[in-house]
Amino acid sequence: MGRVIRRDFRKKGRNTRPTVRRQRHGPRMSLQAVSLLLILIGLSAGAVWLMFSSRQIEIGHRGKSASITVLDGDTVETSEGVFRLVGFNTPEIHGDCSEERALARRARDRLRALVTAGSTNLRRVPCACPPGTEGTRSCNFGRFCGVLTVNGRRAGDILIGEGLAEPYFCRDRSCPSRRDWCGD
Questions:
Q1: Within 13 Å, how many C-alpha atoms sit on residue 146's CB side?
Q2: How far apart are CA 43 and CA 64, in angstroms?
Q3: Does the reported pTM lie above 0.85?
Q4: Are 147 and 157 in contact (CB under 8 A)?
């Protein structure tokens, strides 16, 4: 800020000593402008987070599946980590009955065949977990969440269409109870 010296000539006969007043330079930001700036910074930070949390991870191309390992019908492993594929659920390999275990092996084997035969793409998406726990044992058994596409189609949609999986959608921070594959 600069200093402006002004003489006060209205006070004739009195002390005509100069008075010093501060002069403001540049525009002053209003409360609305500061609020808008903070909102824009927040939105930018959110956009950056979404960009990195849902970034594309290329995990293989036609005939090459060395960068992906299918662990079961809805879980894969890449150099980026272990991913629970979202939007569908398959039976468990270590299920409660022989029918569930057999169907789980079929789902796993079918997903392996899809990954080996097609052009695959894995996109990381946010999990339905408390903030800050994604990728830890406190969230989804330490797995990240992802959507796997094979030749442009979601792997889950293919498995559901073939009767090897069921639709399964988590909301907010909770997931629905899983199907009893032995009860059907």
A1: 28
A2: 39
A3: no
A4: no
**How does pLDDT run across 51-98, given as a tens digit for each residue?**
444 344 444 444 444 488 999 999 999 988 999 999 898 998 888 898
Question: Of 62, 92, 53, which Cα lies nearest the Cα of 74?
Answer: 92
Round to whole Å and give the CA distance between 154 and 122: 10
Task: Give the tokens for residue 27.
Answer: 């525009």
What the chain holds in terms of domains, given with CATH numbers, is 56-168 (2.40.50.90)
CA distance 175 to 89: 11
Question: β-strand 75-78 against 81-85: which pairing, if any?
Answer: antiparallel
What gap in Å lies between CA 105 and CA 110, rounded to an integer? 8
Under a CB-based contact definition with an 8 Å cutoff, are residues 72 and 63 in contact?
no
Q: Token match 């009195």: residue? A: 14
Sign of CA dihedral 51, 52, 54, 59: positive
